[in-house]
Amino acid sequence: MSRGKNILTGVVCLLLLVLGPGTAGADTNYRVDNPPTVVDGGFQKMGKVIVEGTTAATFSGDGLVDRAEFHLPSGFYFTSVGTVDDGKDDDVEVEVVQGFQQNGSHVVTIRPIVNPAYPSQHRAFEVLVNKPSLASGAGSTVLPQLTVAYNRVYIPKGTTGAVTVTIDRTGSSAFSAKSFTIAQVSTLRLNLSTEKTPSLMTGSRMVGPIVISENMPGAFQYIELTLPTGFTWNLPDPPAAVITPGLGLVRDLALDGTNERDYEITEYKDTRYGQSVLRIQLTGESSTVAGNLRIECLLDVDETKAATGDVNLTVAANTNLSTKTLKIGSVVQQGVSVSAQAPKSLFGGLRDQEIAEITITEVAPETLSGGRKVVLVLPSWAKWDIYPTVQVQGTTELDVVPNGGIALPVGTEGNRAQFTIIQPSQRDAGRIVLKDAKVSLQIDAPPGDLKVKLEGTAGATGEVTVGTVKAPLTFTAADKPTLHLGKQGQAAANIEIKEAQGRVMLAQELWVEFPAGVFLAQTPKVRVTGGNLDLGMVSLVETGGRWRLIIPVQTASSAPATITISEIVYGVSRLGVDGDLPVKVGGPAVNEVNLGAVPLFPGNDWVGSVANATVIPPPPPPKPVPPPGGMPVSDELPAGKPPDQPGPSESPVPEARNILFFLGEAAYRVNGKTLDMDIAPYLHNDRVYVPLGYAGQAFGIRPENILWDGDKQAAVLFNGKLVVKVILGENAVYRFETRLETDAAAEITAGRMMIPLRALATAFDATVEWEAANQMAKIVFKP
Fold first, then answer.
1. What DSSP line would sit under 509-534, residue for residue?
2. Interatomic CA distance for residues 374 and 613, integer angstroms
3. Which of 426, 545, 635, 754 is most buried, judging by how many CB atoms fall within 10 Å of its CB?
4. What mean pLDDT is predicted for residues 589-615?
5. How many CB atoms lie within 10 A of CB 478?
């Protein structure tokens, strides 16, 4: 008889003429009690079929009517049938459970459907119900029920999948025509997995649990686990392997104090490749219920031979395997990785700004050294406001101080914090999370990434970005005009100040400071041209030789604000420097970090600057004739006029004089009389510089007695009583031949020799007073 390897369903090879196809109006339901998973190539027990009527009157008791045929797939067979009551232990047995007027084997009849070619191998049988169910009696509501037990069925070799029974019936039979599964056929197999895959460094390491699971009873007999080169199973006496059997593979399944089975553990060298093999052999009974084993074992790592990467076992067993290789760990180089969540937006000048959470992850166990410190360093322009909370996460032996607490400050600068590793990880790499930290940033913190640098002796190094720094304000000045040195009433470009985000500017003063040597003829106009910022009364003050516009912010803006400053009119002194005029923007409104008695970043008060004008020098004076009041230029002194003694045309003795010079004004006053100059005094290195020729005339020296010696780069002033010499670039003046030290030297600006006024007054024995409010120097000279 030819038997196919695939289960056949729905088609019956042997047809009886008395049976036709199933018809509507069926009166029974079927269910299968615990269909098992079985193996091919032998007799196996399958699920029990429960046949139940839909009403108490389902069966009429006419065996010629209530008949059904039960067919197995092609190639399957049984050898005997009977009823449970006959006590014969047949391959297939039918039993009356309930719901009939009478009990006993005479209620139903079961008989095989014989194939003449194989008279002892049956794949179908017939069931006839000979007695009526209870409804024809006293009106019982008990549903009639039969069971069909497939105690032993032969399964062809190579069969897999569902074992399907097909039921056919006569046209008016109470049995339903249906197909259903009574078992699943599968091959024996061991499923393998690992619960952990740790990092395997040098020395002895415990690996596992390696989990071996039977897909059905009896699958496990032995297994061999072969390590790659560089690894050896460590089995001292007693063996350092732990076998934990479960379910059907436990040692004492019957719980009677006697082990039905045990496990023999050995280690040997593979004769072909010299690799270490761990063999686990079942001794005693095979499982009758599918079970599992959990295996843990020490192995030794030879770092000179072990390859970096995954460590994979080669697996062999008595039966099929879900995989022939199994990863139990990996060999990696020690180190840490440092990462952070998405960077937070940060602004210069603000306090208490949250940064991203940082994670320090060991690549391998024991990377972070016990008793050592990890230091977290911010740039010099940032300080910790709230130090990070340190927390160890995951399954690891790693421990730190403080675990769950706040990192400790280091030093006095406020930008360093630390924690200590007190217990290194061992089997599992550790992970440390640093969270809930906040920082303060200097007002002019450079835009871009804020990075935390890891230092210390514990082995954690690197840096990670925790925030993106933005300037709190940006400023522009379009169409910069060109201004001239020494001129008043020159209009500069408007300045527009934009807030990076709403509520970046606080309810404090915003400062706009103009450069030294620039005088404002009027208070500029300030308007809010964006957002809902509320401003107070604007004022213009002089501080430290510079003009400052103070803009009080009364209420912060919920949206990014814009401030426009217009009608800026400059008077520009002769600074001797041309180029852009930088206007600085800052102050307490955008410098929260420096509010209070102790600023965090002293001396850092400005966000930045913007140029709203460009300055160029005035045109040079006409040559060769010097302008009135100037100093004659010659390569030699006139004959008979030595620089160190009076000549025959001495100046008369000067009268007492009150002399006034004003910064930025090309005029001076002597005893109330105003005299013009072609160049204005200016401030340089906190010193007032005046033109030597005009200053000498202010002291009563005639123009012709103010001479220039080109070879010596020196000027000489003299009258009937006094000779004064000034050498270009020298920190001194000479009264006759006496050298008088000064703290500043004469210089050339726009073709004129300029001298510090106090140095010249010293030579003339005059007194100098400075009135800051009027930007005026007053000299009293009494000859």
1. EEEEEPPTTEEESSPPEEEEEES--E
2. 51
3. 754
4. 94
5. 9
Nearest CA to 587 out of 532, 550, 534, 540 is that of 550
363 vs 138: CA distance, rounded Å: 80
| Cβ–Cβ under 8 Å, residues 454 and 340 | no
Position 647 scores a pLDDT of: 37
- CA dihedral over 625, 629, 633, 634, signed as positive or negative: positive
Distance CA 164, CA 180 (A): 5
Beta-bridged to residue 319, according to DSSP, are none
Q: State CA 270 to chain mean position distance.
A: 48
Q: What is the pLDDT of residues 54-99, one digit of tens each?
A: 988 888 887 678 899 999 999 999 999 999 888 889 999 999 998 8
What is the phi-psi region of residue 302: left when phi exceeds 0, alpha when psi lies from -120 to 50, beta otherwise?
A: beta
Residue 118 neighbours by CB under 8 Å, 6+ apart: 1, 77
Give dist(CA 578, CA 483) in Å, integer: 9
Phi (first) and psi of residue 589, to 5 degrees: -60, -25
Q: Is the peptide bond before 156 cis (omega within 30 degrees of 0)?
A: no
Report the amino acid identity of residue 240.
A
The 10s digit of each residue's pLDDT in 527-554 is 999 999 999 999 999 887 789 999 999 9
Q: Assess contact for 534 and 700: CB atoms under 8 A.
A: no
Structure tokens at 122: 């049956």
What pTM was estimated for this model as a whole?
Answer: 0.50
Q: How far is CA 383 from CA 256, 379, 409, 414, 473, in A?
A: 71, 8, 11, 5, 21
Residue type present at position 484: H
SS3 content of the chain, % helix, strand, coil (to 5): 5, 50, 50
Q: Distance between CA atoms of 256 and 258, rounded to whole angstroms?
A: 6
Q: Find the farthest-apart pair of alpha carbons in the chain and give their distance in angstroms, rounded.
A: 168
